[in-house]
Amino acid sequence: MLRPAVFVLLLSACAGPPIRLPDPSLVKASKPTGRGVEVCVLMQERTVRSRVEGVAEWSFEPWHYGIASIVVKHPAGLVIIDPAFGKNVATDLAKGPKLFALAMGPARTKHPMVELMGEAGLDPNDVTLALATHVHWDHVGALGDIPNARVLIAKPELEWARTLTRFLDEGVMPHHLARAKERLWTFDFKGPARDGFPSSFDVFGDGAIVAVPMPGHTPGSTAFLVKLGDGRTALFSGDTSWTMRGVEAPVHKNPLVRLDADEEKTGDALGLLHVLSRERRDVLVIPAHDAAALEQLPSCVGKPPPGTVSAAP
Ligand SMILES: [Zn+2]
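Above are the sequence and the zinc ion SMILES. Below is the predicted complex in structure-token form.
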């Protein structure tokens, strides 16, 4: 067992490379385009952890931890960003090593995405497009459960994923992608710079959902700018930071569990997220595992999933 003082030393020694902040003038708003779209959240796990588990800070403040998928009701069809837990999530967990199960927590708090879609009156067969911030197991586990969805993944991310063949290699479960192998497509960031990002890819060409590169956590990690009906833009930033605390400080993840492919690039991405959230009132940064940030958007089911664990009073 590590003594607290040793742990604090370890945390500060491994806090990660410097987080460089871009010039605020770089993150100014781009020309508004397109109409907003309706968005809701399918929260598949919600528990409370300690802040120290999420960031390199010695703090036991609560971290409202979540795993979720984002539903975007676009005129062209139903879109899901990060189809998270598949129907076989319990089997996926059981196949992993003990340490993995310990870090991820029990299966009973995890609810397959399609079950929640049923509660929300959404048909998994109606999903026409799936997007992913990255291909770690907790972001693409349900690809096999939405059989009619074309799956669009940033080219460097899919190329990297194709080099991984072992179960849970680098956080990837290859069978998740194999279940959608006939439906996998890649895209390049060929569009213009915007909002501080060097390039972009406008998914429908109407400004409603724009993918931007955010390499670091994985080689092709991607963030999505989604134009909301109220004029704001939600920025789904994946696992660059798991928490809003990480963006606001800014601070890297806990070094013992962070699994970032490139820590320097992750630092640059964190710096950009920090400046964006500070300078742009119209941009809502939403880290993938911050339940409180996700809950700023409406839930698709109108209530928390069964078995939800709430914070102690
Ligand atoms: Zn994740």
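The mean pLDDT is 92.
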